[in-house]
Amino acid sequence: MNLLLICSIAMAGGTATEDTKAWVSSLAQYGDDTRASRNTPWWTGFEDPSLTIVIQTGLQQNPGLEAANLRIALASAARWQSLSGLLPQVSFEAATQQSPTDAAGLSPYTANAPDYSEAFQSIGTLLADVARATGTDPSGLPDFSGGQQTAIPDTYRQSSTMLKSMWAIDIFGRQTLRTLASSKNLQATRLGRDATMRGLTGQIGAAWYDLVAAREQHQVVKRQVQTAQNMLEVVQLRYEQGGGSALDVLQQRQQLAATAALAPLAKASLKLAHGRLAVALGQPPSADLPPSKGWPILGPAPTAGDPAQLVDDRADIQAAVRKLERTSLERAASFSALAPTLILTGQIGRQYLTFDETDSVDTWGLGAVMTVPIFAGGRTHAGIKAARVARDIANIELRAIALDAVNQVESAFAIELAAAATLNARRTQATAAQHALNESRTHYVQGLAPYVSLLAALGANQGAELALLDAERARVQARIQLHTALGGRWRPQSENSP
Questions:
Q1: Which residues, 6 or more positions from 410, have their beta carbon under 8 angstroms from its beta carbon?
Q2: Does residue 189 contact residue 75 with C-beta atoms inside 8 Å?
Q3: Contact 320, 402 (CB under 8 A)
Q4: What is the 3-state secondary structure (H, E, C) of 353-417?
């Protein structure tokens, strides 16, 4: 019977996965029939050694991931506890009890027995009187007093040493179902840890390139301040030579002050980005972090592949499938609570009885107990209803997670395309703005262009440089978001999974 249960559960588990794949395929508006390979950690394609260092550090020290590993240990212990219900239970028992001897007279076999001692004593007294009256020696008469009596102890002790065993025979598969449910819970917990790990790598990657952007922005603002300062010197010189006006000098001073005002914000953004990444790595906000070498050169975007592959590649979907399977098993176990239970018992050992001396005897016993539930105040039927509701909730949560995953992938592909196009446009803009600034400076120094054109070119160039930084960051983060949305079955080589 248990073998049939296991086979039926295995078929049910496969059905849940296949049903989810079919549902995802009907929803998705991306992909093709090919199967993409997602067995390699996504950050290896960025060829950024510092990114690899921070991700490996985070996988080793992040508190959330450590807690996820501990939850696996907890689920594993729960599975072993459930499995123990299918095995015989053996225990050694040593017991002793001290009781008053008078209490032994309250035995139902002796409490109502008549007391003939006084009658025998009266017979003895009568015979002694007759002997004295007839001159016979009374010493030869029978002794009806009971002779010399031994003092009885006030207490006695009963003891035993027993090796006992008990085995609940799982006739209707109740404990088997619960054990299988515990195994599914362990699988779901492990997959939940994998989902946390893969989400963490995306979070760390995004935080790393936020820090890279903050460092780049800090350097760009410093260069812009220096450029504005150099430009002020040129304008001042032109004014002194009679080629410019005092208004030009004042406007350039205003431009320098506006640019310098960006420096404190850039410095604060750098500190904030540094702290966010350090905390994600499980380190203090002031911890030392690796140096950065600018932006990575991104290769082609990962292929979409078959949408049904998302169910296999996303650990959070797989975890939700295992939770659904667990609740289905728990629902089946709740029905088996209506069935009888059979428990076999056995014991072997020795019993001891102590008055003045200790007597002992070997003993053993075998037994069986069958319990048929009749009335439990509605608890069993309430448990069946609760298990059904829990299964329905798990099914809804699976659909919600799968739906959100499909939306994440489709959004990530759209953002990837938009970020790539935006970056190309920003690069063109930055190049044109730099050329315009160079030409405007040359023309202004030669007296061929007014200062207002130089001022406009300077402002446009500064804005284009900062916009290009934002586009570079958005481009990299869009690629990380796409990798995170598509998932994968990779695992870092340094990770030892429990």
A1: 28, 29, 30
A2: yes
A3: yes
A4: EECCCEEEEEEEEEEEEEECCCCCCCHHHHHHHHHHHHHHHHHHHHHHHHHHHHHHHHHHHHHHH
Q: Which residue segments constitute the domains of the chain, with CATH numbers given?
A: 2-7+15-87+172-337+385-486 (1.20.1600.10)
- What are the residues whose beta carbons fall under 8 Å from the beta carbon of 165, sequence distance 6 or more? 88, 89, 90, 91, 345, 346, 347
Which residue has tokens 């059904």? Answer: 388
Angle between helices 49-61 and 63-83 (to 10 degrees): 50
Burial class (CB in 10 A: 0-12, 13-18, 19+), 190: buried
Tell me the residue length of the chain: 498
Structure tokens at 414: 């759209």
Residues 6+ apart with CB under 8 A from 60: 494
Adjacent-strand bridge partners of 165: 90, 346
* Cα angle: 99, vertex 100, 106; to 5 degrees: 100
Summarised one tens digit per residue, pLDDT across range 139-166 is 665 655 555 555 667 787 889 999 999 9
> For residues 160 and 317, what is the distance between their CA atoms, to the nearest angstrom?
57
pLDDT of residue 56: 93
- Rounded distance, CA 492 to CA 73, Å? 20
- The tokens for 46 are 């960025």
**Burial of 182 (C-beta count, 10 Å sphere; 0-12/13-18/19+):** buried
CA distance 36 to 492: 19
Stretch 399-421: mean pLDDT: 95
Looking at residue 254, what DSSP letter applies? H
Block residue for tokens 């598509």? 486
φ/ψ of residue 462, rounded to 5: -65, -45
Alpha-carbon distance of 315 to 199, in angstroms, equals: 10
Q: Answer for the pair 214, 266: CB distance below 8 angstroms, yes or no.
A: yes
Amino acid letter for position 494: S
pLDDT digits (tens, 9 = 90+) for 102-151: 666 554 444 444 554 555 566 667 666 666 666 666 666 565 555 555 56
Report how far residue 70's alpha carbon sits from residue 87's, in angstroms, rounded to the nearest whole number: 26
| Residue 486 to residue 32: CA distance in whole angstroms | 14
**Packed helices 174-240 and 262-280: angle between N→C axes, nearest 10 degrees:** 160
Helix (H, G, I), strand (E, B) or coil at 143: coil
Closest to 475 measured CA to CA, from 410, 415, 408, 414: 415
Quote the CA–CA distance of 455 and 248 in Å, as a whole number: 9
Residue type, position 472, single letter: E
List the end-to-end C-alpha distance of the chain, in Å, as a whole number: 32
CA R_g for the chain:
44
Would you state the structure tokens that stand for residue 139, as one six-digit string?
């010493």
3-state secondary structure 8-30: HHHHHHHHHHHHHHHHHHHHCCC
Mean pLDDT of 336-341: 86
